[in-house]
Design brief:
Blueprint: E1 5-9, H1 17-25, E2 31-33, H2 38-44, E3 47-53, H3 59-67, E4 73-78, H4 81-90, E5 94-97, H5 102-134, E6 138-142, E7 148-151, H6 153-159, H7 163-166, E8 175-176, H8 185-193, E9 200-205, E10 214-225, E11 228-236, H9 238-256, E12 261-265, E13 270-273, H10 275-278, H11 282-296, E14 305-313, E15 316-325, E16 330-337, H12 339-415, H13 419-449, E17 458-461, H14 462-479, E18 483-490, E19 494-497, H15 499-515, E20 521-531, E21 534-543, H16 550-553, H17 565-571, H18 577-587, E22 591-597, E23 601-609
Parallel strand pairs: 1-2, 1-3, 3-4, 4-5, 18-20
Antiparallel strand pairs: 6-7, 6-11, 8-9, 9-10, 10-11, 12-13, 12-16, 14-15, 15-16, 17-19, 20-21, 21-23, 22-23
Helix pairs in contact: 1-5, 12-13, 13-18, 14-15, 15-18
Bound molecules: adenosine-5'-diphosphate.
Adenosine-5'-diphosphate (ADP) is lined by residues 508, 512-513, 516, 543, 545-548, 556, 561-564, 567, 573-578, 602.
Length: 615
Amino acid sequence: MQDGALLLVTRSVAAFATLADELRELGLAPLCCGLSELRVELDASGVGVVLLDHGMEGADAAVRELAERSRVACVVLVERDEEREAAISAGADDVLAAPWTASAIAERVEVVRLRAGRTRDAVRRSLFDAWATHTDDALVILDERGLVVAWNVAAVAVLGHEQRDVLGRPFAELIEVYEELGETPEELVEELLSGDTRASISMRVRGPDGAGAAEFSLNVTQWRDAGRRRVGLRVEEAATHEVEEEMMRLASFPELDPNPVLEFSRAGTLSYMNPATASLPKDAANALIEGVRAVISSFDPDEGVNLVREVEEIGGWFEQHIHYAPAWDSVRVYAQDISERKAAEQRLIDARDNLEQRVRERTSDLRREIDERKNAELRAIEASQAKSVFLATMSHELRTPLNAIIGYTELLHEDNTNPEERDDLQRILLAANHLLGLINDILDLSKIEAGRAQVRYEEVSLRDAVERVAMTVRPIAASRGNQITVSFSGSTGRCWTDPTKLRQVLINLVGNAAKFTEDGAVHVATVVRAQADRTWFEIAVRDTGIGIPAEKLESIFEPFTQADGSTTRLYGGTGLGLAICKKICEMLGGGISVVSELGVGSTFTIRLPGDKGSR
Ligand code: ADP
């Protein structure tokens, strides 16, 4: 059924059949029904105009009902003029008096239709205006030519322009487009009008008086208003605003960065430099830019670059991070002044070099010192050896004539009967023998010191060795009222040592003990001990003699040391015996020690290795 169709409501369809036919001929094609079917027809169809026969029972009530329906116009057919009043007061849109010709009816219907249409538009418009005025949404309506036909209060607040300044103006004049989009403002508006509804479109709307454009998101709706195309734009700014603020905030990072930040095109054209770069001295900034350009010129355009380098340029050292991603096609450079760090590094390097230099100098000093000392030592050793060789030779040369002196003096002593001469000869013999002992000792010591003494190891029975020494010394000991005893403990078996040298040491120690003891005892105690994987033997010579003063004990093993000068006079001796003992013990891989107390006695102990060991 057609929108705005014509409905003829009569007391008798048959009575109006001719009229209906005539109307049909005029192209009005009316539907016909009785009053009872009116509501059904209205609800079911798109009836726009009702022709109502006022002669029916309940006609006025029907008119009143129709008046409440805004979409339906009602033309009342009256037979008498008196009925007209009643019809109009019931709310009829128009009243037509009889005789009702088809042409008169057609004319009325047309008028009513037009009037009804206007009324509906007006209602719609006033409703829209009321809403548009009070909503917080900024609304703009364009007509089919793109001229602004509505600009509500919120649009004034959001977009800035007053209604009087924009109404009737082309919307295209109020917007800016991104050149990159390749579209003019006019083309953009045309697109809005073309009917391709876009849910949302972003565009920049210029502020009043040429103020900067701001980005807005516009919701677009197209509709027809009385057959004419309209475009409604609901303006939203909040979301885009936030994005823009966020972008501004992000974009401010390089702006606030105290270090240089730059952007180049891949061709090397500078497209951005931050304030920190701009504040560099001019030649320093140029050097930085040229340096980066040189790097850019060597890029492979298809390859990304992520380069960190340290360069010395005018104004100091810079660490540069150079990024090129083919996707951006721009080169970004972040530079940092590292002059201070470099200076610190240099100071460290200098300090290290300096230290190395000092170490080198000190090392060569030390080396020189060591060399000097070695040479001195060598000279000393040479000198000492020369002395020893000299002494050895000398003592040999001295011994030969001395032996002759002793031999002939003994002959003279044997043959002489004159008591006085015999005493004199006896004194010569004593002195000569003392001198011979001295020379022998010096010879021994010099031999050892000159490294000429040789050690001959053998398997030795310690018991035999010790008892033989005791036997040798016993007569001298007895002459001074002394007793010599020996003892053995541990494995007293056989030991590996030089028997001659051992004997020499024991004779000396036991001899000394007998010499410096009167009416006392001398005891020789031998102990053999297995220690770890070695065997050691100790021989301690203990006497009950005069003892040695504590202050002399330390130096007793040095040559020509005697505990008391008077003892020499009393007991003879050279002061070399203990020095020789010590040297021999050391040659044999051991040592000698002493404990003594004045007036109580002394104990000399030698400790020597008794196995083959590493020898
Ligand atoms: P000397 O030929 O004079 O005995 P030594 O080197 O054998 O030379 O002894 C050095 C000195 O050590 C002796 O003069 C003596 O004063 C002291 N001395 C050595 N053995 C004993 C001892 N058993 N008791 C006391 N004094 C000793």
